[in-house]
Amino acid sequence: MNIHTYEKLWLGAAMVLIVFFIASVTYGAIGAGVAMVDDSEDTLDPDNLGEDDRFADPRVEQVGEDEYEVYVVARTFFFQPNPIEVPADSTVTFYVTSGDVIHSFSVVGTNANAMVIPGEVSTMTVEVGDPGEYGIVCNEYCGPGHHDMEGLLVVVPEDEFELEGDE
Ligand code: CUA
């Protein structure tokens, strides 16, 4: 059978493209530094957060001298706790989960921004600087109250910071 030279070239080009697309999709899924939703951890039951050690009582916890952990629950259409108070000049790790549908936890004007998925825990660590107030919004459409879903992150001066429940 005789195949025309141009036809051969186009066939070859199509093959190269197909291989390139497959390689690019594969890289997007498993390439270096590419992380999909973490599935190595057990999922939690969004209907029973009240029985979860971390999320039954959304809160700020001190874990080191200038290190804090914040456990946040997003629900239609609010965040708990609210406001979230952390001290200036500290390292804060947020653990965020959802009690119902997909939300997001986005600290306005910063790069702290994560999708919040029921059953999963989104984790982000941020270096907190000077005192100030930051809005927290939900960037994932989650229902009729989505546009009203907001919270507040308050960075208070170190000497004024008190953990809730402390005397
Ligand atoms: Cu929660 Cu949009």
Helical amount among residues, as a percent range? Answer: 10-25%
Shape: elongated
What low-confidence regions span 5 or more consecutive residues with pLDDT below 50? Answer: none
Beta-strand fraction estimate: 35-45%
What report would you give on this structure?
This protein is α+β, with helices and mostly antiparallel strands and about 170 residues long. It folds into 2 domains: about 1-35; about 45-160, Cupredoxins -  blue copper proteins (Immunoglobulin-like, Sandwich). Helices cover about 15% and strands about 35% of the residues. The strands form 2 sheets. Strands 1, 2, 3, 5 and 8 form a 5-stranded mixed beta sheet that branches. It has a 5-stranded mixed beta sheet with strand order 4-10-9-6-7, with no helix packed on it. β6 and β7 form a beta hairpin. The longest helix has 26 residues, at about 5-30. It is elongated and about 85 Å long. The model has no long low-confidence stretch (mean pLDDT about 90). The structure holds dinuclear copper ion (CUA).
